[in-house]
Amino acid sequence: METVAKIMSELKRKGSAQTRKTFQRHGAPEEMFGVKVGDLKPIDKRIKGQHELACELYETGNSDAMYLAGMVADGSQMNKRQLNAWARGASWYMISEYTVPGVATESPHARALALKWMDAKKESVAACGWCTYAGVVATQADEDLDLEEIEQLLRRVADEIDDAPNRVRYCMNGFVISVGSYVKPLLKEAKAVARQIGKVEVDVGDTACKVPLATDYIAKVEKMNRVGKKRKTMKC
To answer: What's the whole-number average pLDDT of the chain?
Structure first.
């Protein structure tokens, strides 16, 4: 039988000092073992479907366990209270911008929570909001989206991105890219905002990470004739 204790012990064995060092350069907290995402996938496959176990793993506060939890959890089974707790408890951007949005977009509460989180004072929660709405537009059919609301959010990005917190700027830029890539009726509007915001400056610390240029990214998707082709999931 799989237990939190058993999985935590396995994660500890799979962790390495080099991976911990790499993650810490990206802003990860000390509470982690340093497990590569590729090494999490066999565990994910083994415990897939064990939603309650995933929730227990997230509650450990260990970064590796939290990321694994996001791979396993079923967002459709989570209520607003649980998703809010996940957003508030995210320990660094890999959790707040990938794990939580990946789970949240599976929930019928995704859009409402995204809008709420965008207005949060806490940078990581606000960033989570923009990433979650980016996930909504990437996975839901255009006819199920509020196109007027999304257009208003594009204008909000154009107006606010320069003064937004560091990681929020990164996620706002990603939102523009997501709209331009996945919402064909708003391609023109997304491209216009992408041109307006230009190169977005984000402090990525002592890493080789780069902020994608929205104009180039959307143009690449257009060239591949993939604008509007939705994703099945935001989990990775």
So the answer is: 97
Alpha carbon distance 170, 186 (integer Å): 20
Q: Please give the C-alpha separations between residue 131 and each of 6, 94, 114, 177, in angstroms, as whole numbers.
A: 32, 11, 8, 11
CA distances in angstroms from 148 to 77, 129, 168, 225, listed in the order given: 29, 18, 22, 24
pTM: 0.96
How far apart (Å, rounded) are the C-alpha atoms in residues 198 and 183? 20
Burial of 49 (0-12, 13-18, 19+ CB in 10 A): exposed
Q: How far apart are CA 179 and CA 138, in angstroms?
A: 7
pLDDT in tens, 205-224: 888 899 999 999 999 999 99
Residue of 153, 177, 176, 173 lying closest to 165 (CA atoms): 173
